[in-house]
Design a protein that fits this description.
Largest sheet of chain C: 5 strands, mixed
Distance between the termini of chain B: 54 Å
CATH superfamily of the domain at 85-144 and 219-311 in chain B: D-Amino Acid Oxidase, subunit A, domain 2
Oligomer: heterotrimer
Structural class of chain B: alpha+beta
Strand content of chain C: 35-45%
CATH class of the domain at 85-144 and 219-311 in chain B: Alpha Beta
Strand content of chain B: 15-25%
Number of domains of chain C: 2
Radius of gyration of chain C: 19 Å
Shape of chain C: elongated
Helix content of chain B: 25-40%
Radius of gyration of chain B: 23 Å
Largest interface: A-B, 52 and 57 residues
Largest sheet of chain B: 9 strands, mixed
CATH topology of the domain at 85-144 and 219-311 in chain B: D-Amino Acid Oxidase, Chain A, domain 2
Distance between the termini of chain C: 64 Å
Strand order of the largest sheet of chain C: 8-5-6-10-9
CATH class of the largest domain in chain C: Alpha Beta
CATH architecture of the domain at 85-144 and 219-311 in chain B: 2-Layer Sandwich
Helix content of chain C: 10-25%
Shape of chain B: globular
């Protein structure tokens, strides 16, 4: 049994940023636990550029972005374990860590959950048809190509226009595979507009909206897929089926915060984000357990993951030093046009950063945060897309008026 | 040519593997030919994994008798061979007076067969056993249970190999001819010569039967689609929940696997194609609706996988499903055991079938017993099932237990290595999966499949393009992204 | 004539319109001056950067990720990628080091974006 101030579960972008900021805030008795051989998390396989524009004002690749934090962790001498898996967190914050050297149980005063997310799979979508080889999630294909030097695809169809899916369309093309098309069930792209342009348009890869895969064919390697158009309720339209021959189906159909450890710790999840329900201090329903980054809600930009984790670090610092650290209990309601917010609840005593996503693409709108009759936050937007997380400062006022976020025209 | 076999078993499903294991008690040279790259890849691995009580079959049939016997001995077999089995009971829930009367009939039939532990339970007792179930009353079968069909098949096969049997994979039988007292069995790869032959070919039983000259069996196929759900949901379901069976359909089951996953199925649909395992949207829709009627505590977001299985049924001219056919026709095909239409409850009955079949063989020939037969097969010690102290101890003894490969199922490098180097020799990704549970969780290998294919390359000396997912030809990778260069720059 | 562009300079992805009028070019919708520059460039000579990987010999991993330091003409991307893929690096490779100077004779370098240590013997 080992005591600690903070144990950080996961050495990806969120965990690294949290560790550095905690250290800088004077919290030194910390430990990052990372299950891979090296720190960096998913950024290790994201070799494309475009990271760090907000934070560093330059366009870095994933490994470079991670490196800036890893170097800092090493400079500061922040302790970390690699090849170390957290297998359990109890509601009392006993954290079991397994390595080749043995099994350790830590009792940190605070736990930072920064485990990131996983990909939705073919099974979760329940796509009908057979089960051949050659159906990969975008992240698996990315890992095979960028980390394992293994080529998983030749003749490719991509389902889902998430950012990783589009980035993999370009990556596969550069590696000599032929990407026939990207199909998206929604009437608009799931990923960022810049990726539609620079990953698909630039390589003449067509994007078909309101289409989905309705059958998978082949009992050995994938032989083809049936594509159907969908109606406004996303149901396949009978009679629109078309067979396309291919050896690989890449899925980019959504990311899900990886919260198995959190659930075992008793952390309550928000059904919309699939991440923890937190207050503006990123504290979950279990006291002393905090969450930030993609384990909390899926981000589109790593820059904001880092920011969020740093905000978590400051809150954890206060939690460790302030007696009677307040817990946010006042819920923020999602009004018209808003899919979710983080935090889901606040203390109402201080300014905070609100993250949210809209439910559908909109133009010339204003995001308005109300507390009773008072407007406590406002952001005008020329366009608001579900693919883009919106962040805004909100300053609560005195009084117990109901909190609501909505999109106004 | 491989000759000198006393027995060649055709088909590595649970019945073939059980026969191999039970025959390995005797001093015989045993070979098993399987067309797939692993055992249990067709019907045996694609079902609900329920250990049936035996009440659902007509009195006097082999199905009833051997299911009852198979159920009775399952606890001992599971202990000897270390595969997951739980005698958790099972309920058939009903709502109407008609249902009630039908369930009473089922009890009467079961009791006539000799099944014990059957009773009607009321609303209160039903909801004490399974709080969330929808139903007014139920028939409880106490002797029913759940088992892991993959693990059972693998365990039987491994124990057979331990005791000297040889398994040959990727060997689809294309011809059988008699030469004197021997059978010469050909596959596209090899020829096997044997004195005895056993047709336990499951879906191909009709084809093999014809090759033996035992013609005239009409085999029809029934396909079942299933949906597997998250392990979190299985915790609430203490035993399989069935509806009241009709004459033609056993009804939807909401069951729990030995791993704790919730499982919905089957759909029981006649099919012509005994090799098409595609799941259909309309069946998924049906399962969702039907399961919601008895267990409305899941969402489509909890799905982690869908699959299907096919049962071979022997039918008469009118299409009526017949009993298990187990025969040795001495004047047409001496020393040939012919098994036709081994469908449900074949999994439960498998070891009982094997013992019955061997009885038939021994009526014709005395088999000397092996003094050194070892009935015990040790399974892979699962890290996830150990206590913290045991885990610490396991890592001390073998540091590979401290390296987690599959995070959601908590499968370590040690377990994957044991699976790859098991006595049968695993060459496929699904082979590793069914032995270790790696890749079976929510992310379906999103995190660990690259590690597992790399381990298969390293441990078995395979090139990337030789890694197969499941069936022969199910190539996962097309080689290296960038080959080694001829010249290296400084 | 009006043409619409999705700006790729930053993740905001502004939709920028460029209208060719009698008195010159009228650009609207850009969120910052970089958007204007992007559109001007895109109309005359579209440029892109690219990232890929190179084979490493004697390293603890087989691959090293690399990227261009500056955009090059879009039409030459596949050519540049082929030139990068042809070459092999020798470990150790340091992140940030120039592995190919002036790819295809442009002023854009190819730099390693990852450290690859030499394999332990």
């Amino acid at each position: 049994m080992s005591k600690l101030d903070v144990l950080i579960v996961g050495g990806g972008p969120a965990g690294l940023a949290a560790a550095v900021r905690l250290y800088e805030a004077g919290i030194r008795d910390i430990l990052i636990v990372e299950r891979e051989k090296t720190l960096g998390g998913i950024l290790r396989q994201c070799i494309h550029d475009g990271f760090g524009l907000t934070r560093f004002g330059e366009s870095l690749s994933g490994p470079e972005y991670a490196r800036r934090f890893i170097e800092r962790v090493k400079e500061l001498g922040i302790p970390y374990l690699t090849d170390a898996a957290v297998t359990e967190i109890t509601p009392e914050r006993a954290v079991t860590v397994v390595t080749r050297e043995g099994l350790m149980v830590y009792h940190p005063r605070a736990v930072a959950l920064t485990m990131g997310c996983r990909e939705r799979t073919r099974g979760a979508l329940a796509i009908p048809g057979e089960r051949p080889a050659g159906v990969y999630t975008a992240g698996v294909a990315q890992a095979y190509i960028n980390l394992y030097n293994r080529m998983p695809a030749r003749e490719v169809i991509i389902l889902g226009s998430g950012d990783i899916g589009m980035i993999m369309a370009r990556r596969l093309t550069l590696e000599g595979a032929h990407v026939q098309a990207v199909y998206e069930v929604l009437p608009y792209p799931s990923g960022l507009p810049r990726n539609v342009l620079q990953c698909l348009d630039d390589y003449d890869i067509p994007l078909y909206l309101s289409h989905t895969v309705t059958c998978i064919h082949g009992d050995r390697r994938l032989e083809g897929v049936t594509i159907s158009r969908v109606d406004e309720k996303l149901r396949p339209i009978p009679g629109t089926e078309e067979y396309h021959s291919c050896d690989t189906l890449i899925l980019s159909v959504g990311l899900i915060p990886e919260n198995e450890l959190s659930l075992n710790a008793g952390v309550e999840l928000d059904p919309h984000t699939k991440g923890a329900d937190v207050d503006e201090h990123y504290q979950t329903s279990v006291p002393g357990v905090f969450a930030a980054g993609n384990v909390l809600h899926v981000h589109d930009l790593v820059d904001f993951v880092s920011q969020e984790a740093e905000a978590l670090a400051l809150a954890v610092g206060r939690y460790l030093t302030e007696e009677g650290f307040a817990e946010g209990t006042r819920e923020i309601a999602c009004g018209r046009g808003v899919r979710y917010t983080v935090p889901q609840r606040i203390t109402g005593k201080e300014e905070f950063t609100l993250s949210l996503r809209v439910a559908a693409p909109m133009k010339d709108v204003t995001i308005v945060v109300r507390q009773g009759d008072a407007v406590i936050g406002k952001k005008k937007m020329k366009k608001a897309l579900p693919a883009e997380m919106i962040r805004m400062k909100v300053s609560p006022v005195e009084g117990d008026g109901e909190l609501e976020v909505r999109v106004d025209d | 040519m491989r000759s000198g076999f006393d027995v060649i078993i055709i088909g590595g499903g649970v019945v073939g593997c059980a026969i191999a294991r039970e025959l390995s008690r005797y001093r015989l040279k045993i070979g098993l030919l399987e067309k797939n790259l692993d055992v249990g890849y067709e019907t045996s691995g694609r079902n609900t994994g329920v250990c049936h009580g035996g009440f659902a079959y007509d009195v006097g049939t082999w199905k009833a008798k051997l299911c009852l016997e198979g159920n009775r001995i399952m606890g001992d077999v599971a202990r000897e061979l270390s595969f997951p089995f739980k005698r958790c009971g099972k309920v058939l829930v009903g709502n109407t007076q008609e249902d009630y009367n039908r369930l009473l009939e089922v009890i009467r039939q079961g009791e006539a067969i000799g099944v014990t532990g059957l009773s009607m339970i009321d609303d209160a007792e039903l909801h004490r056993l399974i709080p969330g179930v929808v139903g007014n009353f139920a028939m409880l079968s106490e002797t029913s249970g759940i088992l892991d069909p993959f693990q059972m098949t693998i365990a039987l096969a491994e124990n057979a190999v331990q005791n000297g049997a040889s398994f040959f994979f990727g060997q689809e039988v294309t011809g059988i001819r008699r030469e004197g007292d021997a059978y010469v069995i050909t596959t596209p790869k090899e020829t096997f010569v044997t004195r005895w032959v056993v047709n336990s070919a499951g879906l191909s039983c009709g084809k093999i039967s014809d090759m033996l000259g035992l013609t005239g069996y009409r085999v029809i196929y029934s396909k079942d689609d299933y949906i597997l759900l998250d392990q979190r949901l299985g915790r609430e379901v203490s035993m399989p929940i069935y509806t009241v069976p009709s004459n033609t359909y056993m009804g939807i089951h909401v069951t729990v696997t030995t791993d704790g996953n919730l499982l919905l199925g089957p759909t029981a649909q006649d099919t012509e194609d005994n090799a098409y395992y595609g799941v259909e949207q309309k069946n998924l829709d049906f399962l969702y609706k039907a399961a919601m009627d008895i267990w409305p505590h899941f969402t489509k977001g909890d799905y982690i996988r869908t699959y299907s299985g096919i049962l071979p049924k022997w039918a008469d001219e009118e299409g009526r499903i017949q009993d298990f056919k187990m025969e040795i026709v001495d004047d047409v095909a001496p020393r040939a055991v012919n098994l036709v239409g081994i469908e449900s409850p074949g999994l439960t009955a498998s070891v009982a079938i094997a013992r019955h079949v061997i009885g038939m063989m021994r009526e014709r020939e005395a088999f000397p017993e092996r003094a050194d037969f070892n009935p015990v097969r040790k399974g892979i010690r699962r890290f996830a099932e150990m206590t913290a102290e045991e885990q610490a101890e396991a890592i001390r003894e073998n540091p590979d237990y401290g390296e987690l490969i599959c995070r959601c199922q908590k499968v370590t490098r040690a377990e994957i290595l044991q699976a790859i180097h098991n006595p049968l020799g695993v060459s496929t990704v699904t082979g590793v999966k069914y032995r270790t549970r790696a890749m079976m969780g929510r992310c379906q290998g999103g995190y660990c499949q690259m590690r597992i294919t790399r381990m298969l390359e390293e441990e078995r000396g395979l090139a990337p393009q030789e890694i197969t997912y499941a069936r022969e030809g199910s190539q996962m990778l097309y080689g290296l992204v960038r080959e080694e260069a001829h010249h290296v720059e400084a | 004539m009006t043409k619409t562009f999705t700006c790729i300079v930053c993740p905001n992805g502004c939709e920028i319109s460029a209208e060719t009028a009698a008195d010159g070019l009228c650009i609207t919708g850009e969120g910052c001056p970089r958007g204007r520059t992007y559109v001007m460039q895109e109309m005359t000579d579209p440029q892109r950067t690219i990232a890929t990987s190179m084979r490493v010999e004697g390293g603890e991993t087989d691959l090293c990720s690399v990227r261009l330091t500056k955009p090059i003409p879009k039409a030459r991307i596949m050519e540049a990628v082929a030139a990068i893929h042809e070459r092999t690096l020798k470990a150790p490779v340091a992140s940030g080091s120039v592995v190919i100077a002036g790819i295809l004779g442009t002023d854009s370098d190819v730099i390693a974006t990852k450290d690859v240590a030499a394999a332990e013997a």
